[in-house]
Amino acid sequence: MSDIKRSVSLYSYQDEYYLGKLDLEGCLRETAATGATGVELLAEQMIKQFPLPIETEEFRNKWFDWMKKYNLTPSCYDAFLENRIYDNRTLTLKEQVKMMERDLRLASLLGFPVIRTLVSTPMDVIEGSLEYAEKVGVKIGLEVHAPFSLNSGWADGYMEMINRTGTKYFGFIPDMGIFCKNIPDVVRDKARRHGAKEECIKIVDDAYANRVAKGFTKIKYDLNLGKANMEYRMANGMAEMMDAVKAAGGGPADLEYAGNSFTYSWSEPQDIIDNIDYIFHTHAKFYNVHEDLVETAVALPEVIEAFKKAGYTGFLSSEYEGGEHLRMDLDVDSIEQVRRHQAAMAKWIG
Amino acid sequence: MEKQVIQSVGFRNTKDADGKVTGFQFKVRLPYYRGIFLSQLRPGTLYIDGEKIEKEDIVWNIKGEDFTLEEMKSDFQTHWAVDKPAVLKVKKPGGLAQGYHDIKYGFCFTSSYMPPIIQDHLDPDEESMVFMPEFGHHVNERHLLIV
After folding, report:
1. Span B58-102, pLDDT tens digits
2. I want to staple A285 with a disulfide (CB 3.0 to 4.6 A). Which of A6, A78, A177, A194 is the partner?
3. Who among B73, B81, B114 is closest to A87 (CB)?
4. Do B37 and A85 touch (CB under 8 A)?
5. Are A108 and A247 members of one domain?
6. If contacts are CB pairs under 8 Å, which of residues 166-225 in chain A contact chain B?
7. Is the pTM here over 0.90, yes or no?
8. Spatial contact of A334 and A9, defined as CB atoms under 8 Å apart
9. Domain count of chain A?
10. What is the pLDDT of residue A87?
């Protein structure tokens, strides 16, 4: 019996939320209905007039009443460190630390033990916030999202900081988009609806399979994320693939599919075992789970097996991201997708 | 709300206290999964039946409060939520004639994690060089009725 817990990120219900089919309580009700025991919140998504209500006891009482009513535990608060709120400059280090402290405090007010921050958060902002994180008892987790990966030059930069400071309040939140064996089928289907050619789709799929087979060249640590990303793409054969698609007469839909293929990556699940001491929450990203509970892109069974082997006791939090590839042309059913994904995780966790 | 960014409900002429038609308004939703502060917004140009209206001449109403372009630039307190459309108010003496009109309007927004290559060339009136579905399209068009 594994101690891995299941959670749902309310990001998953974005379509039902904006269309008014689910409000915040409705999302919590659906989360509980899947059998998940944890809930991950994007306050900037579902807290009206963010962040004001969190400061009121009235809202907090309502929040904790909901947790009780639906038997849910707060798992992770997703922070964004919006450091571009001025149009002529990025926030200073001090301003960014202040914002990080705001999010740590808001998270603690709602009972979250962890906040998620993004790769766009500079290292010195994280380091400068560690003391406050310890004070309020909330850990800062850096999302490891494709094209970034564990066991990489990029992650080494953060490991150096962990070792130097000895902090227990910083670690990684892997996003399962780094464990994609294939490009999600919903992305391919969208390309077809928009007129992509089978020949071009094959070039892109073959190139992806080739990257998986020989191993992705990892991204480096660089403060200039744009530069690091471009070097990563080139090292993984993007130019050659684009040329091949163009030579085959690829149009906008083909080139979009080709470009999108770099949104996904494959890391060895062993990376989880190697880094387990620094992983305290996980985004179980997924794109499309079929009725037979197979997710077509993320290698869910292998990844969960690695978490079990590593003795992970944190949450795997469903994060549905297939909707953005359907929304323009088709209806999105996030509720059913999350239900299937939770059932699939329950099956593999055992 | 509808899936489309420009909403069909809420497109109508506006009147002053004396009942004189002074312009028109329409609603847009935020095509993103989380809300944004107004300073993150980059409003663009409006074309109504091909007639150009500059971004400075459009007032945004968020949660019942009016904001000019200048006011929004430095407002990082007011948060625009994804489930509440904004009302865009346009001055145009006499308003629009009854019948169908073509609306074309561009706006976009910044985000901390937006790839630098997109962020650096952000233009509300042009699509990004790389389209990322989560940030939506910048320029949206609709053919809507005023009665």
Report:
1. 999 999 999 999 999 999 999 999 999 999 999 999 999 999 999
2. A177
3. B73
4. yes
5. no
6. 224-225
7. yes
8. no
9. 2
10. 79
**Residue B115 touches partner A, C-beta closer than 8 Å:** yes
Contact assignment for B110 to A87 by CB distance below 8 Å: yes
| A225 in the same domain as A167 | no
**Do the Cβ atoms of B37 and A325 come within 8 Å?**
no
Residue A285 pairs in a beta bridge with A319
The ipTM assigned to this model is: 0.89
Same domain, yes or no, for A35 and A97?
A: yes
**Do A339 and A199 sit in the same domain of this protein?**
no
Least Cα separation, residue A343 to chain B (angstroms):
25
Span of B2-6, B122-126, B130-134 with lowest mean pLDDT: B130-134
The DSSP letter of residue A279 is B
A115 shares its domain with A191: no
Q: Region B125-147: what's the mean pLDDT? A: 92
Tell which wins on pLDDT, B118 or B11.
B11
pLDDT of residue B47: 98
For A41, the closest chain B residue by CA position comes to B34
Listed in sequence order, the residues at least 6 apart from B126 whose beta carbon sits closer than 8 Å to its beta carbon are B106, B138, B139
Is A244 found in the same domain as A156? Answer: no
CB contact under 8 A, B81 and A80: no
Check if the beta carbon of residue A158 is closer than 8 Å to that of residue A152: no
Chain B 67-86, CB below 8 Å of chain A: which residues? 73-74, 76, 79, 81-83
Divide the 350 residues of chain A into consecutive groups of 10 and give the mean pLDDT of each group: 93 97 98 98 95 96 98 98 87 96 98 96 95 98 94 91 96 98 98 98 98 93 83 94 96 95 95 97 98 97 98 98 95 98 97
Which residue in A120, A151, A127, A141 sits closest to A226, CA to CA? A120
A258 Cβ partners below 8 Å, 6+ apart? A200, A203, A204, A241, A242, A245, A250
**Cross-strand partners of B100:** B145
In this structure, are A131 and A41 located in the same domain? yes
**At residue B110, what are phi and psi to the nearest 5 degrees?**
-90, 165
Tens digit of pLDDT for each residue in B7-24? Answer: 999 999 999 999 999 999
Q: Assess whether A142 and A214 both reside in one domain.
A: no
Instruction: Tell me the chain B residues in contact with residue A230 when contact means C-beta distances shorter than 8 Å.
Output: 117
Q: Which domain holds residue A45?
A: 5-181+265-349
Determine the pLDDT at residue A1: 66
B124 touches chain A (CB under 8 A): no
Residue numbers in A near B121 (CB within 8 A) = none
Domain ranges of chain B: 6-146
For residue B83, the chain A residue with the least C-alpha distance is A18
Q: Which of A239, A263, A287 is the last residue of a domain?
A: A263
Full DSSP string of A288-308:
-B-TTS-BSSB-HHHHHHHHH
Distance CA B47, CA B28 (A): 14
